Amino acid sequence: MPLSSDLHDKNLMFQCQRCSRTIVRKGSWIKSIKTFRCEGCRSEVPMTYGHKLAIFERHRHLAGKDSK
Ligand SMILES: [Zn+2]
After folding, report:
1. Ligand 1 centre and the CA of 41: distance in Å?
2. Which terminus of the chain has a lower count of CB atoms within 10 Å, N or C?
3. What distance in angstroms lies between residue 13's CA and the mean position of ligand 1's atoms?
4. Residues with CB under 5 A from ligand 1 (ion)
């Protein structure tokens, strides 16, 4: 399943794997990064392809419910 470009301009929510802080970023940003610096725990957190897929899948599911 590819990372949908429909979500590039959308704010997507995800949780830091270390401290569970909720982070909101554009889909295009999530797609382009391999790690991110968490504002909560100050860790460099790896963002795997599988993790990105899970975020995109969840939001696509939510968007589908609202707009289609
Ligand atoms: Zn964190």
Report:
1. 4
2. C
3. 14
4. 16, 18-19, 21, 38, 40-41
What single DSSP character describes residue 56?
Answer: H
Per-residue model confidence as pLDDT tens for the chain (68 residues): 688 899 999 999 999 989 999 999 999 999 999 999 999 999 999 999 999 999 999 998 877 655 44
The 3-state DSSP class for residue 60 equals helix
